[in-house]
Fold this protein.
Amino acid sequence: MINIIFIGAPGSGKGTQAELIKRDFNISHISTGDMFRENISNNTELGKTAKSFMDKGELVPDEITIKMLNERISADDCKKGFMLDGYPRTVEQAKALDEMLKKLNIKLSAIIHLHTSDEIIIKRLLNRARADDNEATIKNRLQVFKNQSEPVLDYYKSSVKIIKVKSVGNPDDVHAVISKELKSL
Ligand code: B4P
């Protein structure tokens, strides 16, 4: 059973690669971004709060995100293995995840760190053109990633295997590199 985390800047391809892994490894795909977007389209209170942060390129507060994730990861389908796409994004979220996994008696197999250049990210996201994909917001999201999410890699470096993968070129080629790494775990 594999339990993995994807860490990478906005637009580094976490969602894209997670879909390909799901296809090949039959594990649950948990995307906090997708969960927030679903709440936004259903016009829930959680969605309204999340939207006010996402539109500015800020992170949704830890308190809300941790609660939502803890409920999701306790669900039965996660027992067959899971990948977290876009969580944890802060050291606080990582600490809360550790606590939760300890309670559930689950171990992380690895972290996939997707990386590429800011220039490529800006091009990709302007091309994707989602609601939060305008240039000012993208630049803020990149800064937020550097300030708040990169420290998560430091937090895990002595306890979990970190696999660094360059996320450029054809998504299928990037997937082949990740697949090979996961099969050798
Ligand atoms: P997310 O939904 O996680 O989205 P993302 O970081 O923008 O994108 P991702 O890396 O998944 O890129 P994708 O594969 O789609 O976050 C959105 C927002 O939600 C955050 O800013 C935050 O506000 C909030 N949020 C989410 N999780 C949170 C948390 N834990 N705590 C607090 N707030 C949270 O790829 C992007 C584009 O690139 C696509 O168009 C794709 O087709 C293209 N692409 C991908 N790989 C490519 C490749 N190899 N070559 C060419 N194009 C490629």
The beta strands are 3-8, 28-31, 82-85, 110-115, 162-166. The mean pLDDT is 97.
